[in-house]
Amino acid sequence: MEDDQITGNFASAINDYIGVNDPEIDGKVLVPLRFRADGGNVLKVQDINILYRITDTTPPTIANVVLNPESPNTGQNVSIGATVYDNTAIEQVTADLNGDSVVMIAGENNSYTGSLIAPYAGDHNLIITAQDASGLTSESTTPVTVTYDGAELFTESVTFNPSSPLLAGKNTDSDEHLVEIEYDFLVQYGSHCKGTATMVLPARKT
Q1: Radius of gyration of the CA atoms of the chain, in A
Q2: Which of 35, 86, 104, 157 sits between 20 and 30 A of 50, alpha carbons compared?
Q3: Are 184 and 192 in contact (CB under 8 A)?
Q4: Helix, strand, coil percent values for the chain (each to nearest 5)
Q5: Which domains are delineated in the chain?
Q6: Is the pTM of this model over 0.70?
Q7: How far apart are CA 124 and CA 98, in angstroms?
Q8: ω before 69 within 30° of 0 (cis)?
């Protein structure tokens, strides 16, 4: 007479095993199952279904960020490199320099590369963002100093506000009049420097 015996629930044992064993690079954990039949009994394995989910809490790691050149001139092409790795898989790596962004290309040994154009002269931040297959992100910030290569600065336009105190119908009894100047300088590579300043100009009495 055959008497089929059904094993207990594997779930707790499997969960314990997963909890102390790291997943492989593709996020999978190999769970070994051992069966033994004693006393000449026949072991019949049937309908084993295992469903489990690994919760990824580790964001990507960004390291070895390099720029070439390290201190570029305005408008110069900048090559960017970084090492990005994760316990599962990297979904995307982007680099941003003063609003100009690029999706970096994956290479060998977890390397990622890209290129951007250096913005106007001054201190900026190169921000590299990595996202893994679980949606977790990491961000790396590298200061970048962009230099000015000495190209001549020239004035594109200068406007006065008011355009003329007398033409604007503003007579004065004083010997001078405050005039607000709005300026707009055009520098190399199409960058602009805009702002306002106040200066004192002689005024004609009426």
Answers
A1: 34
A2: 86
A3: yes
A4: 10, 45, 50
A5: 61-146 (2.60.40.10), 154-202 (no CATH)
A6: no
A7: 7
A8: yes
